[in-house]
Amino acid sequence: MITVKNLKRYYGTGETAVKALRGVSFEIKKGEFVAIMGASGSGKTTLLRILALLDDATDGEYTIRGLQVSSLPEAERSYYRLTQVGYVFQDYALINEMSAAENVYILSMMEGKSRKESYKTALEALDKVGLKEKHNRIPDELSGGEKQRVAIARAIAKKPDILFADEPCANLDTRNSKQVLDVFKELNEKYGQTIIMVTHEPWHTEYVDRVITLEDGSLVSDEQKRR
Ligand SMILES: Nc1ncnc2c1ncn2[C@@H]1O[C@H](COP(=O)(O)OP(=O)(O)O)[C@@H](O)[C@H]1O
Ligand SMILES: [Mg+2]
Description:
Layout: E1 2-11, E2 18-28, E3 33-37, H1 44-51, E4 59-64, E5 67-68, H2 74-84, E6 85-88, H3 100-110, H4 115-128, H5 144-156, E7 162-166, H6 174-191, E8 194-198, E9 210-215, E10 218-224
Parallel strand pairs: 3-8, 3-9, 6-7, 7-8
Antiparallel strand pairs: 1-2, 1-4, 4-5, 9-10
Helix pairs in contact: 3-4, 3-5, 4-5, 5-6
This protein binds adenosine-5'-diphosphate (ADP) and magnesium ion (MG).
């Protein structure tokens, strides 16, 4: 589904350029749940942002389902990003004044869907993360794990090709982290959702199919886990 070849990302130019990715290659199949591991500064976020079309590579190839996304016109890239890419941030990025359902359906409405249809889609997504009963709560009335599950619902409401998550459990204790990881695992197993998750916690890899490890901008291991 995803192929990257010799992907590079340099910040700045010349001698002072930071080589965040030094030529990374791999393929990811539909339905895989992949963890990207590595120390802080190894290039994990840089890689994820390029894969999610939030940033451009300096060099290299990137294709999704055979489509050369790196050379698409910006309008098509942003359409793809809006309709096909789900992204979960470390800090949830929820709007505090809005209920869980509103946080989820605001994106569908931006896609031009009706309020009624958007609300229905939002409730379905909240159901998938186990929060249908709490759809009326605002973020302040939810635990950290529940907030992140609302953010996951928002990301999956559009039924994205790929769900990306950048250290989704970084602000959570073990109990809340497990809730969130269980949701990812269920989305992957029950609905076949392709998931690429950045993490630096070794125990999180128990939930995934495969672990790609970066070190100083290079891929140093790509390990298939058994399930
Ligand atoms: N916008 C930026 N400008 C300059 N350097 C950056 C920028 N973003 C990241 N970097 C550098 O690129 C390297 C990789 O960063 P990052 O991808 O955030 O790593 P990780 O997510 O693994 O901690 C680091 O050296 C970081 O300082
Ligand atoms: Mg990071």
